[in-house]
Amino acid sequence: MAEALCEDGVHSTPVPGLTLYRWSETSSPRHGVYRPSLCVVAQGEKQVWLGQQVLTYNSATYLISSIHVPAQSRVSRASAAQPYLALRIEFDPQEWLDLFEGGALGREDEVEPEAGLWVARMEEHLLDAIARYVDLVRHPEDVPYLAPLWRREIFYRVIRGEGGQRWARLLAAAGQANPAHRAVRYLAEHFRDHVRIDDLAALVNMSPSTLHRHFKALTHMTPIQYQKRLRLLEARRLLLGGAQSVTEAALSVGYESVSQFTREYARLFGLPPSKDVERLRLAP
């Protein structure tokens, strides 16, 4: 992996869902959105804040996000001599459900909801499957034939390992995707829209109070807080792109009041939109 990462930055690859990362220094906490993905650190260490919970992962562990979830993160161990090296494999949760439904992996009855982002211990068989998947970067001609096989093996190894019981509790409820997961996914896709909690609860066949409890367990946010965070992060991305004014960005992500947008933006990022974007552009 180190051979493929000669320069710092985010590196896309021809392997489905695989992104590689290299950083030669630690970073301050940064806001972002974790998509459904498996995150692995080959060298160095990373910290993720989900609400008040701090998740730390390194070469001995891995992190899984089963949902789209806003969080803060930072590279907590890196240097020029030993840079932070990591990878992310994005997935559709349905890929995992297919394995559960294939039998032999078992199911668990519904239990109390848990966070949709967690860390588990890395195991030898899983690491070997991941290494073969990453090695396809050097052999793009093999990707159409081997990537689907090794990708499926990676998911299988996770399910059979320490993280598998968590997946069973989160995803294998009555043979269907967890209703709270569906609610999170719906809001992630419709955060710009006006969504009533009662309507969202009815959509996933839950009572509003049950939805609120399960949603907060998964994301450490209420549905309204989750929607607001996605709106603000998307607006920040649009402003950094330079193609939209503050008013245009606010309206495009679903705000009806620009003054409310400016207040909530400053509350999250520490500065009003224009000053925050200027600070980010001047940062090294």
Automatic annotation (TrEMBL):
- Segment forming the signal sequence: none
What Gene3D superfamilies does the record point to? Answer: Homeodomain-like
Q: Which PROSITE patterns match?
A: HTH_ARAC_FAMILY_1 (PS00041), HTH_ARAC_FAMILY_2 (PS01124)
Listed A to Z, the keywords are:
DNA-binding, Transcription, Transcription regulation
Put simply, this protein is called Transcriptional regulator, AraC family
One MF term in GO for this entry?
DNA-binding transcription factor activity
InterPro entries the record matches: Homeodomain-like_sf, HTH_AraC, HTH_AraC-typ_CS, Tscrpt_reg_HTH_AraC_N
Spell out the SUPFAM superfamilies in the cross-references.
Homeodomain-like
Pfam families the UniProt entry points to: AraC_N, HTH_18
Upper taxonomic classification of the species? Bacteria, Bacillati, Bacillota, Bacilli, Bacillales
Q: Which organism is it from?
A: Alicyclobacillus acidocaldarius (strain Tc-4-1) (Bacillus acidocaldarius)
**Which residue ranges does the record assign to the HTH araC/xylS-type domain?**
181-279
